[in-house]
Amino acid sequence: MKGVTRRDFVKGSIAAGVTVALPFLRVRGANDRIRVGVVGLGGRGTGAHIPAFENQNGVTVVAICDPDQQRMGSAAEMLQSRYNHKVVQYVDMRKMFDRKDIDVIGNATQNYWHGLSTIWACQAGKHVYVEKPLSHYIWEGRQMVNAARKYNRIVQCGTQHRSQSSIAQAIQWVREGNLGRIKYITAFANKPRTSCGRRDTPLPIPDTIDYDLWCGPARKVPIYRDRLQYDCSFDWNTGDGESCNQSVHEVDVARWCLGEKMLPRRVMSIGGRFVFNDACNVPNTQIIYYDFHTAPVLYEVHNLRKAKGSNEMPTFRGERVGVIVDCEGGSVSLYRGIAWDNKGKQVKSFSGGGDHFVNFIEAVRSGRREDLNADVLEGHRSTAICHTGNISYRLGKKASKEEMHAQVQHIPIFGEMFHRLLEHLEAHEIDVDARAVTLGPWLEIDRENECFKSNEQANRLVYGFYREPCVVPDLSV
């Protein structure tokens, strides 16, 4: 955004921990024990981070942190019973980061906390495994990259498909031209979600939760949904919706396949939040067109069932969640690891797994960020792409079927996706002629500067909003 810097939007910043690059990068020796602190003790923190670290030789979780003391107590009990040792508990992550004996932070906080907590951890000299989506705002993600580089830290983004060998093999096979040129990629997620509810009075916050710390950089407002925790992913104040929360996995794999290193040239989204009539505000049905130079990536998300009264979920070519690459000579399902020709005959299959947490610890031990399968920069690129689609949606207006059709008819493959969207909504008895759907504008992207061309409204969402004192610092060189 020419003539406008982050400092025009944010006055001041927090500095936590050291302020100069540390002289060492890796853990002292391959046989030395790596000591881990885990922040954020929901499903991913307790169910994934703790066991993924504890099950590796020479790695121990020594501290945990969450503003929800009930969650934290349950995690501590689990560690004691399953791994036979106690941990120190912290309500404020900054106090845990201050510990000099902790090498690594497992960051399983909610989306809106990823940026600042990762930066604080880097400033305090910690290496970080941070969950996806990497950031809550595009500019914030770039500052996370800057922090990792400035403080010489190993930072892995939790886009774990990067460590799945079957996907790596399939992408390599496609890139070798075995099916000819890539025409387009369709990424999709059909994951059932339920309503987050709508209360008449604010949700009571238990005394066991430090609500001010829980809110952190987000606006501290009353909650009118039924649950405080996970459903915060479906409110723009604290979350980024399914088209970023989940789609960063699929968009990341699609971008990896294309070899794209920057944002798309332009983007547009159509969708809405249907059926639920609840207190959340992100779309639960959405399509997005990402116009890359190499080939377009199309994304669709359905959180509703296949039709009103149905228990089935929609699918795309028989898959609920996946990435399918259409080439001149056939197609490849990257998640299923299957390739077929234009006649539908299977011509190749791919297999093999991988462990993203193991890859992270190996990179911490080697001290080489090049050993990471999903360095923070890769996580930033893919997350930023998803944010562009959401920004188009957030700037959109309710439109008629004719108005929407006029915006997509010049792109046949997007037109097909649009018609699938209409059929899906009509199966839920939604009157698409009654301006029930939000049509986002086509947004031209300044790829070099990771913002939008001549659109102040869109760029405001690039930079985001922070609540003092939890402000992401400008670490631009």
What's this entry about, in short?
With about 475 residues, the chain is α/β, with parallel strands linked by helices.
What can you see in these coordinates?
There is one protein chain. The protein has 477 residues and is α/β, with parallel strands linked by helices. It folds into 2 domains: 176 residues, Rossmann fold (3-Layer(aba) Sandwich), CATH 3.40.50.720; 270 residues, Dihydrodipicolinate Reductase, domain 2. Strands 7, 8, 9, 10, 11, 12, 13, 14, 15, 16, 17 and 18 form a 12-stranded mixed β-sheet that branches. A 6-stranded parallel β-sheet has the order 3-2-1-4-5-6, sandwiched between helices. Helix 5 packs antiparallel against helix 11, helix 6 packs parallel to helix 9 and helix 9 packs across helix 11. The protein is globular, with a radius of gyration of 22 Å. The protein starts with 33 loop residues before the first strand and ends in a 14-residue tail after the last helix. The N terminus is likely disordered.
